[in-house]
Amino acid sequence: MEKKRVLITTLGCKVNQYESAVLAGLFKKRGYQVVESGNIADVYIINTCTVTHLSDRKSRQLIRRAVTANREAFIAVTGCYAQVAPDKVLEIPGVDLIVGTKDRYKLVDLVERAIKGRGQVNAVRNYKVDEEFEEDSTLPLQERTRAFLKIQDGCNNFCTYCIIPFTRGPRRSRQPLKVIENAHMLVAAGFKEIVLTGIHIGAYGNDLAGDVTLAGLFSQLAAIPGLLRLRLGSIEPNDITPELVNTLSSSPIFCRHLHVPLQSGDDQVLQRMGRQYTTSEYNRLINVLRQNIPGLGLSTDIMVGFPGETSEQFDNTCRFIKRIAFSRLHVFKYSPRQGTPAANFLNQVEPPVKEERSHELIKMGHQLASKFATSFIGQDLEVLVERLLEGRGNNYEGFTGNYVRSVFPGDEGLCGKIVVFRAEKVRGATLEGKVTGLRY
Ligand code: SF4
Predict the structure, then answer these.
(1) Residue 74 and residue 439: Cα distance in Å, rounded?
(2) CA 251, CA 214: separation in Å to the nearest integer?
(3) Residue limits of CATH 3.30.750.200 in the chain
(4) Which residues, including other chains, have CB under 8 Å from residue 67's CB and lie 6 or more apart?
(5) Which residues in the chain are classed under CATH 2.40.50.140?
(6) For 314, how many CA atoms within 13 A lie in the half-sphere containing its CB?
(7) What whole-number distance in Å separates Cα of residue 276 and Cα of residue 214?
(8) Nearest ligand 1 atom to alpha carbon 165
(9) CB atoms near residue 66 (< 10 Å)
(10) Which residues in the chain are classed under CATH 3.40.50.12160?
(11) Closest Cα to residue 314, out of 302, 326, 324, 323?
(12) d(CA 346, CA 348)
């Protein structure tokens, strides 16, 4: 009998990407053929996002595209948009099943039951306060040389602009033994680098019995034979404890890069956002990190156009960003999310002003990233080789530990290896050079 084909399309963050990779593993385990986008499928899974109004629009577009791609197919919608706007999703003709951010790993059963059943199925469930981490030990189907490993879900911070606590529920951590077990499976599958990801990874362990911390988990993972690189996903400033700094700075396999969301460089805006730090506290933290972790790559998220943000406050943000000299900026325009406090704040900023401020910061981000990359010219750096660059002859790309993209001549045999890369010049924010040796 011909295998059923399933196509999983994903929007949004690394956690959503990870969950889709686990879903692919689950469908494959149940005998489905997981097909790439552009192919026709019998079952379409759309893993949605709702972090901005644009994500909502893209989610609806992807759903409609799946419906028209194969009118006979079964359409299931999951993810954050499905969790907060089930009625809107169910209004889209052709949707057969909707599952929110809970029970995602039960999707194969829910799909097969719904196929046998009649009519549309709404399986979205609301979160309880004492929610457990949704565990599944299926190895995620990840194509890349670097593997993501989800260790935590949910958030209790309720920053005034953020919809995530409403879509993903209360914070909850994965049991350390389950994380370590999965990490062993990833190393056995050939992954050299693991990225610890979650919604609020800095809160890892706070909800578990005993003295469970991110620093403790990191040390246990770093002891796994064959794991050559361990990277942290985005981490909140307040969660970077002296214990964690000590653990990271003394670990030979820690990838020297941290993504620490700042959001604004103005204290009044930070306060209205409900962020639990001031710019001077953030600055002090960065000084401690740089003193303890030389060569640290430091990236961040900045939101422009938060309600009430004046041009003076925006200027404060620009000055502060230049002072910290980040290695990379992720710039977001504030997008009112229904149900969040900031959506009802007065003095919403006009879209053209948001656009202008966003452009200014994106330009500044390119300059800072180029400046950071330039500081490594002439040095030998370790790079994990990822892939051949389409249309660039035999040029391959990879990333340094501190997350600088690097390009160099190579061959297929280098993929998945850690090489010694001599940085010779910069193009934009990318280092170019040559491989001078093999590290692992
Ligand atoms: S820390 Fe704030 S911005 Fe981040 S997920 Fe939680 S509520 Fe959202």
Answers:
(1) 48
(2) 14
(3) 258-375
(4) 73, 75, 92, 93, 94, 95
(5) 380-438
(6) 22
(7) 20
(8) 7
(9) 24
(10) 5-122
(11) 302
(12) 6
The CA 41 to ligand 1 mean position distance, Å, reads 35
CA of 183 to the centre of ligand 1 (A): 26
Bridge-based pairing of strands 146-150 and 193-197 is parallel
Which residue intervals of the chain bear CATH 3.30.750.210? 128-255
Tokens of 406: 């690097």
Cβ < 6 A, ligand 1 pocket = 155, 157-159, 162, 164-165, 199-200, 236
pLDDT digits 0-9 by tens, 223-233: 999 999 999 99
**Which atom of ligand 1 lies nearest, measured to the CA of 236?**
1
- Fold classification of 380-438 is OB fold (Dihydrolipoamide Acetyltransferase, E2P) (2.40.50)
**Nearest C-alpha neighbor of 285 from the set 301, 272, 298:** 298
Global pTM reads 0.95
CA 110, 116, 122, 128: dihedral to nearest 10 degrees? -30
At 77-126, the pLDDT tens digits run: 999 999 999 999 999 999 999 999 988 989 999 999 998 887 899 999 98
| CATH class for the region spanning 258-375 | alpha beta
Give the architecture-level CATH label for domain 5-122: 3-Layer(aba) Sandwich (3.40)
Q: What is the CATH number of domain 128-255?
A: 3.30.750.210
Q: For 10-39, how does the pLDDT look when each residue is reduced to its tens digit (9 = 90+)?
A: 999 999 999 999 999 999 999 999 999 999
Distance 393 CA to ligand 1 centre (A): 42
* 163 Cα–ligand 1 center, Å: 8
